[in-house]
Amino acid sequence: MLNWIWLGLMLVSVIYGACAGTLPAVTKAAFDSAGTAVTVVLGLVGVLALWLGLMKVAEEAGLIRVLAKILRPVSRVLFPGVPEGHPAITAMLLNLSANWLGLSNAATPLGLKAMEELQTLNDDKTTITDDMATFLAMNTASITLIPATMIGVRLALNSANPQEIVGTTIFASVCATLMAIVASKILQRLPIFSRDHSRAKSKSNAEES
Amino acid sequence: MTLSEILQLISNLAVPVLMFAILFYAAMKKVKVFDVFVEGARGGFDVALKIIPYLVAILVAIGMFRASGAMDALSHVLTPLTNLIGMPAEALPVALLRPLSGSGSLALTTELMKTHGPDSFIGRLAGTMYGSTETTFYVLALYCGAVGIKKTRHTLVAGLLADATGLLAALWICRRVFGDA
């Protein structure tokens, strides 16, 4: 899926750029974006190290297991494939709550940690599990309790009431999150999205090439 | 204290309180906090290195797509469709760009608010749309890339459905709350 969309974006950009005479801008955007990607990641290294360090301390202290046990009722419904007391539960819920609070510096490292933990439960390391998919879908819809960036922008532009979009944002993002849960739970049952299907497909691709 | 002030307070306190709680609890359990912290932090660089190629791929494709003008053309083509559901044509590029690029849609939203005023309907709608979903492609590339997942199955479809729901919900609630002015 991502393969095709990526290919489509790249090819359409070049073809459209050639027709519209924007090819120089396309070239520049390609190099600029490549640089941006590295800048973004390098900016992440520090916070990643900080949160992974703290998570390790929490794990060593047994805090992760305690939290996971408390959160069991929620996680059993959302992530049925994760066994009781597994560290993935705590990492996922910490990531989601960091997202909800708008703490993206904390959310990303916790999310990566959660994916690593979920990967230990995966019997086919290149294919996503149902629980990962639900987790990621919830992440892309992430509930925003404080749209801090937007409030900042509105403040800068002299809005009479910068906070007035808080309520509407919460409403819209809760709708998106509910959809993420429902959609991932329903879609995971469809035959074309089954784990066996994607495995069989990659096998036949390999044989062709 | 209004609800948004309470929420603001919580987000300001969350990180220091969490840090304190983890370290305090660990110290009580006689964990060698410094050594263990350093051991865990060492993993930060590995994870970051693993992510780079995925982010380059995604950000380059989206950067090229926008720069070529194809993005604008796409929103032009879709305008009749959005008129049908009562979405202002100006807000459509924000909706289309939101799942692709965080900084791009932020720039676009800011631009719209500057042009139409932050307290106009378009300004409020664009602001709500921006806050209502995350950058789906970025999240997928980042998290799947970091652990080596190649087959994402239904994740992208579920994420995009959630985005669409968030954007439509933003439109609906903004029309209710702020009116169509």
Write out key terms for the chains shown.
heterodimer; A: 209 residues; mainly alpha; 10 helices; B: 181 residues; 9 helices
Can you describe what's shown?
The complex is a heterodimer of chains A (209) and B (181). Chain A is mostly helical. Chain A has 10 helices and no strands. In chain A, helix 1 runs antiparallel to helix 2, helix 2 crosses helix 6 and helix 7 packs antiparallel against helix 9. Chain A is globular, with a radius of gyration of 21 Å. Chain B is an all-alpha fold and 181 residues long. Chain B is built from 9 helices and no strands. The longest helix of chain B has 26 residues. In chain B, 52% of the residues are buried. Chains A and B meet through helix 1, helix 2, helix 6, helix 7 and helix 8 of A and helix 1, helix 2, helix 3, helix 6 and helix 7 of B.
Sheet with most strands of chain A: none
Tell me the structural class of chain A: mainly alpha
Please report which band the strand proportion of chain A falls in: under 5%, 5-15%, 15-25%, 25-35%, 35-45% or over 45%: under 5%
Tell me the quaternary state: heterodimer
SS summary, helix count of chain A: 10
> Hey, which two chains have the biggest interface?
A-B, 115 and 105 residues
Q: What is the topological layout?
A:
The complex is a heterodimer of chains A (209) and B (181).
Chain A: H1 2-20, H2 23-60, H3 63-70, H4 72-78, H5 87-100, H6 104-119, H7 130-141, H8 148-156, H9 165-187, H10 195-208
Chain B: H1 3-28, H2 33-41, H3 43-67, H4 70-85, H5 92-97, H6 102-116, H7 121-132, H8 136-147, H9 155-178
Helix pairs in contact in B: 3-8, 6-7, 7-9
